[in-house]
Amino acid sequence: xVQLVESGGGLVxxxxxxxxxxxxxxxxxSSYTMAWYRQTPGKQRELVAVLTVSRGFGEYxxxxxxxxxxxxxxxxxxxxxxxxxxxxxxxxxxxxxxxRSGTYLGADGMDYWGKGTLxxxxx
Length: 123
Description:
By secondary structure, this protein is an all-beta fold. The chain has strands at 4-7, 10-12, 18-24, 33-39, 46-51, 58-60, 68-73, 78-83, 92-99, 112-113, 117-121.
């Protein structure tokens, strides 16, 4: 079974930065679409960023465009989410997810999920 393990969350002040990492087990990471989602209590899970193999570039929620960057290091089986200029509205549990198809069909199409890492933005 493929496992995804997130790390890098924590407490940061408004305006600060964090980089989340997602290590993926197995031998097929380079063929996976990778995505980051976030969720806060009482709200639906929200797509933050997705990086498809077929397109080769990141796509972002409007709320994070220009501040967040999704990337990957295939040699390390790792996906990243660089988050800059953080605001309290970015506070959430962040999850990474992988789609074996290499395309993106929405959250229901993601095959594997991590357990999440908490990001808290507060002064």
